[in-house]
From TrEMBL:
InterPro entries recorded: 6-PGluconate_DH-like_C_sf, 6PGD_dom2, 6PGDH_NADP-bd, HIBADH-like_NADP-bd, HIBADH-related, HIBADH-related_NP60_sf, NAD(P)-bd_dom_sf
Active site as annotated: 171
Family membership: Belongs to the HIBADH-related family. NP60 subfamily.
GO CC annotation: cytosol
Function in brief: Catalyzes the NADPH-dependent reduction of glyoxylate to glycolate as well as succinic semialdehyde (SSA) to gamma-hydroxybutyrate in vitro. May function in redox homeostasis and play a role in oxidative stress tolerance by detoxifying glyoxylate and SSA generated in glycolate metabolism and GABA metabolism, respectively.
GO molecular function: glyoxylate reductase (NADPH) activity; NAD binding; NADP binding
Keywords, in A-Z order: NAD, NADP, Oxidoreductase, Stress response
Catalysed conversion reaction: glycolate + NADP(+) = glyoxylate + NADPH + H(+); 4-hydroxybutanoate + NADP(+) = succinate semialdehyde + NADPH + H(+)
Lineage of producing organism: Eukaryota, Viridiplantae, Streptophyta, Embryophyta, Tracheophyta
Descriptive protein name: Uncharacterized protein
Pfam family, any one: NAD_binding_2
Ranges where the 3-hydroxyisobutyrate dehydrogenase-like NAD-binding domain occurs: 165-283
Amino acid sequence: MEEIGFLGIGIMGKAMAVNLLRHGFKVTVWNRTLSRCDELVQHGASVGETPAAVIKKCKYTIAMLSDPAAALSVVFDKHGALEQICGGKGYIDMSTVDADTSSQISQAITSKGGSFLEAPVSGSKKPAEDGQLVILAAGDKDLYDQVVPAFDVLGKKSFFLGQIGNGAKMKLVVNMIMGSMMNAFSEGIVLADKSGLDPHTLLDVLDLGAIANPMFKMKGPAMIKNSYPPAFPLKHQQKDMRLALALGDENAVPMPVAAAANETFKKARSLGLGDHDFSAVFETLSK
Ligand SMILES: NC(=O)C1=CN([C@@H]2O[C@H](COP(=O)(O)OP(=O)(O)OC[C@H]3O[C@@H](n4cnc5c(N)ncnc54)[C@H](OP(=O)(O)O)[C@@H]3O)[C@@H](O)[C@H]2O)C=CC1
Ligand SMILES: O=CC(=O)O
């Protein structure tokens, strides 16, 4: 494949770009805080000074940015992607955003002759490091087919979901479920503890039953120790709850459980826990 551009070297972007480099791809990176690219240079990446410079150099560019505001800014602002996008170039936004944001980006890119794919991912820091993400792509099928070799490195499975917006919506539904589950899990650990049970035994019981899952297994032991090293920052989980609730509004879907979970994530943010892992929502329930 041609050289790949990568915009956004946060927790996920860094792991994904390193993975591409390890598998022999040439990668040019850009990050708003440019110094964060230094580590990628040690892995063999080149650095572009602006998103526009990366797009100019690369046939395909991936973005992995915090939220809708960041995704829009990197495309539309001065020296943004839009300045250099043109026919023959592909832009792949893997950030978790809402369908409307994705449509705005798609329209802008395609109006300049470029092709666009939204491709948010399910899976956190560790799956990103291990190339085990689940990729939820939608948009330009030709572009999808062209970048499958990169998706094969980044993920264990890619879905092509059709028209723009379907990838964004699928990701929000999945994360809405995950955020609600994390709240129920936190309440369960607190309830076990306060009612005189050993929370570690609760984890063992859960792991043997029908609701066993990798998230409980991976996060539970650290939560019991009140430890929340950021894999999926809580501020992003709350953003996903907010965007999923808006999708519920649009479709008149009552979501009382997700709405309550959103309130606890907001509470956690107000306590300064936004940069901790989203499992830190446990703090709002255990105190
Ligand atoms: N972490 C996870 O487990 C997962 C995250 N996601 C999603 O992936 C995306 C990235 O997540 P993650 O890597 O964890 O997040 P991080 O907070 O670690 O990284 C966010 C990135 O966005 C950049 N950024 C933020 N605001 C702006 C802006 N206004 N203009 C330009 N760049 C900006 C940051 O740059 P700077 O370094 O300068 O701040 C950084 O590169 C999010 O949409 C998240 O919801 C999806 C699946 C799993
Ligand atoms: O978006 C987060 C994840 O774990 O998936």
